[in-house]
Specification:
7 helices; 110 residues; single chain; 2 domains; mainly alpha
């Protein structure tokens, strides 16, 4: 969210605080943190279901590959889709075979 406001600040050439005020007060946009979402949904009368951290409907990629991909690309802005693809290929190529094997072995023991 802060990055979005900073981008809007640069694009609009107005101060960060002005962009913040416009976004939150004038446009009525609010920030919702993931830890508060269940409380908000309960307040609205919606039922939330707990999700087991190692649920069978999640694949090993959800615990090993995707977080790794996100970590290695975090904070980087890409100019186009091809740049994203190239970085993804680089990150995948850097992962050793034994890391994949260890991930699968850990998954089997859960």
């Amino acid at each position: 969210r802060r990055r979005t406001i900073e981008v809007l600040e640069v694009l609009s050439e107005i101060s960060w605080s002005s962009v913040q005020r416009i976004v939150t007060e004038d446009l009525g946009m609010t920030r919702v943190a993931a830890k508060f979402l269940p409380r908000i949904l309960t307040k609205w009368g919606m039922t939330t279901l707990p999700h087991a951290p190692y649920s069978p409907d999640l694949a090993p990629c959800d615990f090993f590959l995707f977080p790794r991909m996100k970590r290695d690309r975090k904070g980087h802005r890409f100019n186009d889709v091809e740049e994203v693809r190239e970085k993804t290929r680089t990150v995948l190529a850097a992962i050793q075979k034994n890391e994949f094997e260890r991930c699968c072995q850990q998954w089997e023991h859960m």
